[in-house]
Amino acid sequence: MANLRQYIPLATAGEVISQSFTNANTDPYLISNDTIVMAELAHIKSLLGVKFYGELKQENNNGTLSVNNQALMTYYLIPALCWMTRFEVILEIQNNSSSAGVVTNLDEFAAAVSPTELNVYRQSTYRKGQLFLTDMMDYINGSEQAGYFPTYDANKGCSGNEVWKNHGIVMYDSIYDRNRYGRYGSCYNGSCNNSYNNDCNCN
User: Fold this and answer.
1) Do 94 and 105 reside in the same domain of the chain?
2) CB atoms < 10 A from the CB of 97, how many?
3) Which one, out of 1, 62, 117, 165, has a CA that is 20 to 30 A from the CA of 55?
4) Residues 151 and 161 in one domain
């Protein structure tokens, strides 16, 4: 695999704030490039596949996005990534590690929410991010976009038994149902030679 970490993130801190934060005055310094990349690795890379993810990273870094890739980035990927970045960063924004330990960031006009309220807030953020991710994958796999993303199409997995993580719990089932009868209409597990799986790459 190429060194994809040399490229800039697929979204900026400013985009994360403008698209997913209520307070537009949130300090961009709180959302580091590493945090955005972490969100890419946790929520974007596995959906797109290494090769298509790498293509987008390189083109975005070099300012050479194709028309189709630019549309995907603008309308689907960046909004999804912004919400998943908010999910990943929200605990760091509320709490901060220091020489005195983990402390809560507060100003004189604010009060910390309870752990229960914070969990509800994070779950709501995660749900919204997942909605954007689902919409992105529906777009990529839509019949009207056939041929738009050849790197993705040529490297789709053929197994429906994908491993995914749900808040730290590893589940051996497909959260995305990547089979012929699932949401994304990909490959039915073990049936690459069947006539109804002619969209499956099994090389």
Assistant:
1) yes
2) 9
3) 165
4) no
